[in-house]
Design a protein that fits this description.
- This protein is mostly helical and about 140 residues long.
- It has one domain.
- About 55% of the residues lie in helices and about 0% in strands.
- It is built from five helices and no strands.
Length: about 140
């Protein structure tokens, strides 16, 4: 994956989330795709900030970024669907949720790369302890080799 304007969400995902129907008219689909393309840059910047542009996305990462792309599109551009009217309160709720997801990517609570874990996953490492002066010296020597 590269962070070069890749669209993460599809017009179908957007339409099913916010329009409640699929397929939609061709003109509506074009407007949805334009909004998704325009807002994908925000996601690219967040991924680039944490060095996640050169990794393979996990399945959850793909779904999460598609969801984020759809949220950003509905926040920044009027919904082209005639069947649903999104209020300013809903738009603010979507904006807050999108910002929370971007923040989780930036501080690595949410990891999108395959095989990686977020910063909230517990980790345990073994620390060697020297009970005598000689053991402490051996540990220091072993670390410097």
């Amino acid at each position: 994956m590269s962070c070069t304007g890749t669209r993460y969400g599809t017009a179908e995902q957007y339409s099913k989330m916010f329009c409640g129907e699929w397929p939609v008219e061709a003109q509506v689909q074009i407007r949805i795709e334009s909004a998704l393309d325009a807002t994908a840059g925000y996601i690219d910047m967040a991924l680039n900030s944490v060095g996640a542009c050169d990794c393979a996305l996990s399945a959850g990462g793909e779904q999460g970024l598609a969801y984020l792309n759809c949220l950003l599109a509905v926040v920044h551009y009027p919904c082209p669907c005639n069947s649903v009217e999104i209020t300013s309160e809903q738009r603010q709720m979507f904006a807050t949720e999108a910002q929370n997801i971007i923040d989780a990517i930036l501080d690595r609570r949410m990891e999108v790369c395959d095989g990686e874990t977020g910063s909230k996953v517990a980790a345990l490492d073994w620390a060697e302890h020297g009970l005598t002066v000689w053991n402490r010296a051996r540990i220091i020597i072993n670390r410097s080799i």
